[in-house]
Amino acid sequence: MIKRKNNIEEAWADIDTQLKKRFDLVPNLVAVAKKYMEHEKDVFEQVTRLRAHIKPNANTRIKDELQFGAAINNLMVHVENYPELKADKQMLSLQKSLTEIEEHIAAARRFYNSSVTDLNNVIKIFPGNLIAFILGIKHKEYYQAEKIAHQNPKVLYE
Amino acid sequence: MNDFTSLANLKFIEKELYEKGFSSFFETDVKPVLMPLEALRLKKIKEISRRKIIAVGAVMLVLIIEILLFKMGFYDDRDSDGSPPGMFFLISIFLGIFYIKAPGAQYEGEVKDTLIPLLLGFYGKFRYEQKGRIESSTLTSSGIIGNFTNYDSLDYVNGNYMNVDFKIESAVFKTKSGDNDLLVFGGKVLLIKIHKTFSGKTVIKKDAGSLFNWINSRGSNLKQIKLEDPRFEEKFEVYSTDQVEARYVLSPAFMERLLQLAELYKTKTVQASFFDQNLLVTFSNGHSVPINIFQPRSVKESIINTEDIHNFLAQINSIFKIIETINLPSHNAV
Q1: What pLDDT sits at residue B192?
Q2: Phi, psi dihedral angles at A2 (to 5 degrees)
Q3: Cβ–Cβ below 8 Å for B247 and A110
Q4: What value of ipTM does the predicted structure carry?
């Protein structure tokens, strides 16, 4: 059970590393996009606001990161409407980095969720539930991107 | 109709999508090499006929000597560990067959050396070597080909297709066990260069059942990885030094492509490994000698036809099909 708990921590550490990379990359992305997307103030505000809302040790971290991710996706959808921006070398490079980071987040998330399933299954039944109670190990929350990604990002912040 | 007339009248009919535009290439580039190959074939047939007479004569001579030795009681006085009666006769038959077949094999080799690079050239810049090979050290590092002492290869192709740098060959790996050579692997080996370096190693093996999967993961630094796709889990077992990297390379889309590849090569065992800057995919057929990827028709049949060319193009495109199925994007991210 301890091994399973450690797996979750290890998986979370991987996610955290990638989330930090994304957190650092987004201001550059916004700065480049702003040069071309003058009439998309709402989109930038949403990204900036949600980025500022992220606190590394907050209980709502997963939810906050998913909302932040959805706002970035929304920004990238708008980028598609600006051919000059799409062709900008700096933008291309940032997009490539973002894709790479998102792929790593997706991989780390799959490891995290798989580890959470392992632990949650064990602590649901006897004697796992008893040992978990003694050790103070609790049911863990999944990192579920789908729930947020399938919603309209604008609705989230009304 | 003589060969020159039949060659002049020969037209290549494009039947497949991958043959589009080939008919003019056939006229300008392929036709000029067919006549010298046909001349070589006829020369080799004559040589085979000559060798048949010599070989049959030699075998008969050995048989007569064997009979005489037997009649003279030569075999009666021998120890039980001496050569039994008829042994030299049998050896002479094998040598005779080899002697007769050699010109045919030389001709087939010449056809491949002439036509395969030419036909590959229609699709891009590729290098073909009948006896070329992928470096042993790279294959050893992959973790899907066991330790080997003998390495035999055939039909090595190296090049770039759909922005993917690849090497492919038919290979057999054996290892010494006492006096015997044990087969480690026999089949096709495809090595793809990935433009990013993996920090760990991820190996995708054929599922061997829970017990053997568990045994396989013992005693190595590779951990068994459980993935979400039950169809993939049923077919393959994944081991890796890095849980996250394994899931990075085995994205749901890539798992789907590997399943498609396994479906395409049902009769073979498909396995793969990501390591350093490489993706190695193996298609095991269990043969103990390398099987031709490119197989010309027999020396007995004229080369002045388009059937051989259709076959070669199909064989070349079966390689491309693998790369298309793996479908690595241009930046080679998986």
Answers
A1: 92
A2: -65, -40
A3: yes
A4: 0.73
**Residue written as token pair 């395409």:** B264
CA closest to B245 among chain A residues: A107
Label the pairing between strands B150-161 and B164-177.
antiparallel
Q: In 3-state terms, what secondary structure has residue B201?
A: coil
- Of B18, A93, B1, nearest in space to B10 by CA: B1
Residue A110 has its nearest CB partner, among B228, B331, B333, at B228
**Interval B163-219: pLDDT, tens:** 889 999 999 999 988 888 899 999 999 999 988 888 899 999 988 777 776 776 666
A100 touches chain B (CB under 8 A): yes
B60 token code pair: 């008969």
Q: Residue B281's pLDDT is what? A: 93
Tell me what the mean pLDDT of segment B269-279 comes to.
Answer: 92
What's the count of helices (H) and strands (E) in chain B, helices before strands?
10, 9
Q: pTM for the full model?
A: 0.79
The mean pLDDT of B282-288, rounded to a whole number, is: 89
CA dihedral sign of residues B133, B136, B141, B147: positive
Our CA-based measurement puts residue B276 at a distance from the nearest CA of chain A, in whole angstroms, of 18
Beta strands in chain B (DSSP E): 126-129, 150-161, 164-177, 180-193, 202-206, 223-225, 236-240, 269-275, 278-284
Choose the mutation target among A6, A15, A114, A117 for the interface with B, i.e. most B CBs under 10 Å.
A114
pLDDT band with cut points at 50, 70 and 90 for residue A58 = confident
Q: For A81-113, how does the pLDDT look when each residue is reduced to its tens digit (9 = 90+)?
A: 899 998 999 999 999 999 989 989 999 999 999
Q: Do residues B38 and B3 lie in contact, with contact meaning Cβ atoms separated by under 8 Å?
A: yes
